[in-house]
Design a protein that fits this description.
Elements (H helix, E strand, L loop, with lengths): L1 H23 E8 L12 H14 L4 E5 L3 H10 L3 E4 L14 E4 L3 E10 L19 E9 L5 E8 L5 H19 L4 E6 L7 H8 L3 E2 H4 L5 E2 L20 E6 L3 E8 L3 E2 L2 E2 L6 E7 L9
Parallel strand pairs: 1-2, 7-8, 10-12
Antiparallel strand pairs: 1-15, 2-4, 3-4, 5-6, 6-7, 8-11, 9-11, 12-15, 13-14
């Protein structure tokens, strides 16, 4: 009888702890998965897709902003992630071109609104290229309601151009403007491969527009990172390396607790040519958080 009571007490304590964690915690990731290139040797998509998808499940990531996702990769990930749903379109319209999709735990979140715009002088024009960009670039966004807590927040995900210096600067200004226009003062998380260093102008533009870099906002003991995110399949980690993948946030009620760069490497095998950035957030209090 005594053992039975202890077991029940332990179970109830665990359930209470889990409920509290679920209520206050929100884990997100920025994940450039590397497009499906046949030239990637041992790191072709076929060798990585299950490992990569498993990492999202294993780390209990609630919302993932992914980049370089082709339609076939999107389908593969959805097959491996039955508890998630995805939102987004290809950058050339419909199913064409790379997506910057948002994957979310479908039982936890309700989608209140969502859309995609292009990083160009004509944001609503499908497949439009901006400034000196080599390719069309997009932003996919969603307004979520967290069914556990009732809190609502916006999630934006993007991939800046890899060549256009002016495009990256103008893209930063445009996305900051659009966040204010769409989300107002509500909590926002922005993920993406920004193809820019922390000391470069696009990063400064985002910071000047009240978007906070989770890495910079947390003390050293709350961060786990090799110091860079793009690995270029380089086993030796040579050359000048720095962060180009970020998780930003703004608005009241949401604050980061922990930051991790998942350095997924097994010898010559990599989870992607970018290491994903995983950030755990907490809701500060129900009054500060927008509810609906």
């Amino acid at each position: 009888m005594k053992n039975f009571i202890i077991t029940i007490a332990f179970t109830l304590a665990n359930l209470a702890g889990t409920a509290q964690k679920t209520e206050s915690g929100l884990t997100v990731a920025s994940y450039n998965i590397r497009y499906n290139s046949p030239d990637d040797g041992v790191n072709v998509w076929e060798n990585r897709k299950e490992w990569l998808s498993h990492s999202i499940n294993f780390f209990d990531i609630d919302v993932v902003g992914a980049q370089e996702v082709t339609y076939t990769q999107l389908t593969d990930m959805q097959n491996f992630l039955p508890d998630y749903q995805s939102i987004g379109v290809g950058r050339e319209g419909g199913k064409k071109g790379e997506y910057s999709p948002i994957f979310y735990a479908k039982d936890r979140f309700e989608v209140l609104d969502s859309s995609t715009f292009w990083l160009s002088e004509t944001p609503q024009k499908v497949a439009s290229k901006g400034w000196d960009a080599a390719l069309p670039r997009i932003v996919t966004w969603t307004k979520f309601k967290d069914k556990n807590s009732g809190n609502t927040f916006y999630f934006f995900n993007t991939h800046f151009d890899h060549r256009g210096k002016e495009a990256r600067k103008n893209s930063a200004a445009l996305i900051a403007e659009k966040i204010k226009e769409i989300a107002g003062n509500e909590p926002v998380i922005l993920t993406g491969d920004f193809n820019t260093a922390p000391d470069a102008e696009p990063h400064k533009i985002l910071i000047d527009n009240q978007l906070l870099d989770t890495f910079s906002e947390l003390p050293a003991e709350k961060k786990y990172s090799p110091g860079y995110t793009f690995n270029s399949w380089d086993v030796e980690a040579g050359g000048n390396r720095y962060r180009i993948d970020y998780v930003f946030y703004t608005g009241e009620g949401l604050s980061p607790e922990k930051y991790q760069v998942l350095d997924g490497q097994r010898g010559r095998n990599f989870i992607s040519d970018h290491f994903p950035v995983i950030v755990k957030f907490k809701w500060e209090n129900s009054e500060a958080s927008n509810k609906q």
